[in-house]
Amino acid sequence: MVGKAIFDGELLECYFSKPMYKMMIGEDLAFDDMEDLDNEYFTNLKKTLEADVTHFGLYFAITQDFYGKIEQIDLMEDGQNVPVTNENKNQYIEKLLYYKMYSSIRQQIDAFLGGFHELIPKELVSIFNFKELELLIAGCPEYDILDLTKYTDLHGYTKSSPQVVWMFEILDEWATLEVDKNGQEVQKGKMELAQFF
What is the pTM of this model? Predict the structure, then answer.
């Protein structure tokens, strides 16, 4: 469906995680990609990298609960017998992240990517970076400028502060620009924000 939408030039109201976009274009996953999936987990892994793991009791294996059935999964061959040390903790984090972002859901990701690349070959989509691919799939997110003015929580500023007025004027201008069939930006009826300040 995603490949067909790109092929037909249609936008979808769906957003993927950064690692998924990177897999779609064939880009390698990186440590920072985990932050997009699970910020708390990412933060804990960062702390692990900075810590002395000698007494953590970690091994190159994880336990996972599959609907009440506990399974041990090796992150490398015989991983349950390979302790994590300060010397190999980077390798441990790398293998753990690869498992979390790809291996644990490999079947689903491979099926999705297979269908996607059947319509949009990897060679064609790889010219984009992950941010550009997101725009190609979903376009720019739309926002309601009136809701923004109504619900923005200001600290140290008021609605009449020049910086706040300028910000909403700029956002309003961006929200009212459209692109015509020739790729030219045209104004589409400016909203009056003055009544809200």
Answer: 0.65
